[in-house]
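Human:
Take a look at this sequence-structure pair and walk me through the tokens.
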Amino acid sequence: MRLALDQDSNVHLIRNYGPGYVTVDAEQRLTRSFALAPDALLPDWGPEGFEALAAEHFEALLALKPELVLLGTGARQRFPHPRLSRALTEAGIAVDAMDTAAACRTFNIVVAEGRRAVAALLMI
């Protein structure tokens, strides 16, 4: 699905997505799991899929200073065990799990509102 919003060139947005890929900004097509903040992209964030999620993947997101983490869990919504995201919740950071397509759409909306969201997107 193609997403189109007016964009500040200093803010990363998701431009489109489909099965197995997400395009960030104008031309950066990503096919592996990654994390995205309005001002940062971690193309090698880590887990290859939901089952590979570990506490250190969530801990790495702390460096992006989010107020909200949108966890895209692949083709369907799944919920990680709370112990995995404990570092975020103890820091007062909300974690919202949804399918990856919904996380892509939600990220752009939340960033357009001026909020500090991080999308952590699983591609499998």
